[in-house]
Design goal:
The chain is an alpha/beta fold. The chain is 34% helix and 28% strand.
Length: 226
C-alpha cells in the first residue's frame, strides 16, 4: 500500500446545512512522509481545519481515500477511528486543553488511560514530561504554570503514546514571542530525535519558514506545495 505516513487521494468533505451544501474540501490530495515537518496555511474558510480533522481521524471524508501509515481509514467506524487516533496521532492545540484541576502528570497520563494502557503509565508520563523539560513541575496544576509550560505539558501529552504524527493547530497562538520560539525549538528537536512526523497549522509565515514544506490551502484544494 502507500509508502506515505499521510496519503489523501481526491478527498472531499461536504457539510449539509439545511437545504445548503457546503463543500469544505474539493478533491484534495496530499502526501506526507515519515519524519517530515510540514506547515499547512490558508485563509479562514479555506478548508485547512476540515483537513486537519480528517488527517487526525476526528472526522471522515465524504468521498475519496485516506491512508494513515498505509491503513485505509476513510470508512472506519467512530470507535475504530478513536482507536487509531489514540495510537497514531498526538494533538497540540492553541488553547492547551488541559484539565484545570489535574496535575501535569495526570494530564499527560490521560491518553494512556483512554487506551486502557496501564503498563508503566506513570513512568511513561514522567518520561514525556522530562523530554519537554518539565521534570520539576510534574505535581503542578495548569494555573501554577506559565503559558509556555502549559503548552509543554500539552506536547508531553501528545508524545506519551509514541504517535506516528503530531498535529499542532496554531501551537504558538497564545504564547508570547519568546515562549513561542522556545516551543517551536522544542517541537523541531523532538522531530529530529524521534523522527515523528510534524504537521503544523499556522497563520504565521515565520513559523512556516521553520518547516520543510509549506502547503497552502484555498477553497478546499491545494493552492501550492513548496
Amino acid at each position: 500500500m502507500s509508502d506515505w505516513v499521510v496519503d489523501t487521494r481526491d478527498v472531499t468533505k461536504v457539510y449539509t446545512m439545511g437545504d445548503m451544501e457546503v463543500h469544505a474540501l474539493r478533491g484534495l490530495s496530499i502526501q506526507i512522509g515519515a519524519g517530515e515537518v510540514i506547515a499547512i496555511m490558508g485563509p479562514s474558510g479555506s478548508g485547512k481545519s476540515t483537513l486537519m480533522n480528517i488527517l487526525g481521524c476526528l472526522d471522515r471524508p465524504t468521498a475519496g481515500d485516506y491512508y494513515l501509515d498505509g491503513e485505509s481509514v476513510s470508512e472506519l467506524s467512530d470507535d475504530q477511528l478513536a482507536g487509531i487516533r489514540n495510537r497514531k496521532v498526538g494533538f497540540v492545540f492553541q488553547s492547551f486543553n488541559l484539565l484545570p484541576r489535574a496535575t501535569a502528570l495526570a494530564n499527560v497520563e490521560l491518553p494512556l488511560r483512554y487506551a486502557q494502557n496501564g503498563k508503566n503509565r506513570r513512568k511513561r508520563a514522567k518520561a514525556a514530561l522530562e523530554a519537554v523539560g518539565l521534570a520539576g513541575r510534574i505535581t503542578h496544576r495548569p494555573n501554577e504554570l506559565s503559558g509556555g509550560e502549559q503548552q509543554r505539558v500539552a506536547i508531553a501529552r501528545a508524545l506519551v503514546n509514541n504517535p506516528s504524527i503530531i498535529m499542532a493547530d496554531e501551537p504558538t497562538g497564545n504564547l508570547d514571542t519568546k515562549a513561542g520560539d522556545e516551543l517551536m525549538e522544542l517541537l523541531l528537536d523532538l522531530n529530529r530525535k524521534n523522527d515523528t512526523t510534524l504537521i503544523i497549522v499556522t497563520h504565521d509565515p515565520e513559523i512556516a519558514a521553520l518547516t520543510q514544506r509549506v502547503v497552502k490551502i484555498r477553497d478546499g484544494v491545494v493552492e501550492s506545495d513548496t
